[in-house]
Amino acid sequence: MAYTETLTDPYWEQVMAYKDLREELESAYPKRWVIIHDCKCVGDYGSFNEAVAAADEMGINILDCYIRQVGVEPALFIPTGVGPPIIIGYGR
Fold first, then answer.
1. Domain range enclosing 23
2. Contact (Cβ atoms closer than 8 angstroms) between residue 43 and residue 28
3. Letter string b/e over residues 30-55, b meaning 16 or more CB atoms within 10 A of that residue's CB
4. How many CB atoms are located within 10 Å of the residue 25 CB?
């Protein structure tokens, strides 16, 4: 995998691996929460909390993996400078 040679942070390596696996994951695990660790999918779960608990049970450091919902774009947070940020959610 080309990305792992240039990045040193384990989290970002997993984010790049997700991008490489995205089509496969979207067909196999739509709307499921996946854990990407060691540049591969190590599990799929019904909720974020289930995925975090599973990562902990597997001994995976939460900072060294990527947990996200397949096929749903993450929310975009826009700081306003005053008050709470504007949150724009996608795909929900």
1. 3-88
2. no
3. eebbbbbbebebebbbeeeeebbebb
4. 19
Instruction: Specify whether the CB–CB gap between 74 and 33 falls below 8 A.
Output: no
Count of structural domains within the chain: 1
| Predicted structure pTM score | 0.74
Give the dihedral sign, CA 30/35/41/47: negative
Residue pointed to by tokens 């995998």: 1
Q: What is the pLDDT of residues 59-92, one digit of tens each?
A: 999 888 999 999 988 766 666 676 665 555 554 4
Give the chain's end-to-end CA distance (angstroms, integer).
32
